[in-house]
From TrEMBL:
Organism: Dactylosporangium siamense
One Gene Ontology term of the molecular function aspect: ATP binding
Start and end residues of each Maltokinase N-terminal cap domain: 20-103
Lineage, opening ranks: Bacteria, Bacillati, Actinomycetota, Actinomycetes, Micromonosporales
Protein name per the record: Maltokinase N-terminal cap domain-containing protein
Keyword presence, ATP-binding: yes
Domain of life of the native organism: Bacteria
Short name of any one Pfam family annotated for the protein: Mak_N_cap
Amino acid sequence: MALLHRADLTPSKLELLNAWLPTRSWYTGPAEPDLAKVGAFRLDDPAGAVGVETMLVRAGDGPVLQVPLTYRDAPLAGAERWLIGTTEHSVLGTRWVYDAAGDPVYAAALATIILTGAGQAVEEFEVDGVRQARANELQATGSGRAGAAVPAVTGVLRVADTDPTLIATDSLNLTVIRVLTDDPAVPDGAPTLTATWPGSVTARLLACAG
């Protein structure tokens, strides 16, 4: 479950990404994009300390891009390379926003949803002390099975910041597709994460493990 806040962010997530995306080798859009949000979903951090969100964005009529993010209340030691920027949250204060490829909390959450066949986190707001679920038209689902063993991920060892992005952790390897296409290459038999959203004709591959 992801508890969200009705809050203002300065700068906004899209403003941060407008500046950051053109610095990525796998981005081929305009130098000054005006990104639109296609959809987003959350993953659970069991400790409840780190926000984990995957955003799907598009520049004009370009392809849909996958940008996983983590939100922290303090800098992540040794992760300066993955810092996208900071934003002021009107409820939580300063938040450090990271490209989640370099964050072990994201790697652990991604491995869990892929290998256990789970869905994304339920998103809730608290209004006058009452929790209210927020509907999400984007649905992300892992291909694994309920109750499957998930290797513990405690560190990210290497990241190939390409498309696809390859994340080597201390227990398994993960692949994250950045530019979403209709027919990405998937290793035979690899457990996957796919998603659908309004306007998508078929489920799109987001990530795989193995």
